[in-house]
Inverse folding.
């Protein structure tokens, strides 16, 4: 997946779930606070860690997984569900 393909998917979807570096994330584009991205809560990660971004491009450029920008992990992202 390219950076532009991920941005396009976020801009044109409602809910997205993906895996990256053995973590599971959800993206919701319809919230009042902007585009939500957060790690799915698990027993290993009981905290609600999330961020909001104004645009899909900002999310892809600024969100980090394990300290690595999402755009540098494009080959590690596996989309598991989207609507």
């Amino acid at each position: 997946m390219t950076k532009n393909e991920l941005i396009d998917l976020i801009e044109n979807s409602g809910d997205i779930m993906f895996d990256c570096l053995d973590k599971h994330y959800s993206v919701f584009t319809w919230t009042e606070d902007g585009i939500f991205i957060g790690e799915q809560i698990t027993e290993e990660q009981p905290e609600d860690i999330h961020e909001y971004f104004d645009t899909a491009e900002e999310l892809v450029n600024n969100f980090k997984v394990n300290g690595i920008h999402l755009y540098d992990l494009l080959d590690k992202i596996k989309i598991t569900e989207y609507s």
Summary: The longest helix spans residues 3-11. The chain is about 20% helix and 40% strand.
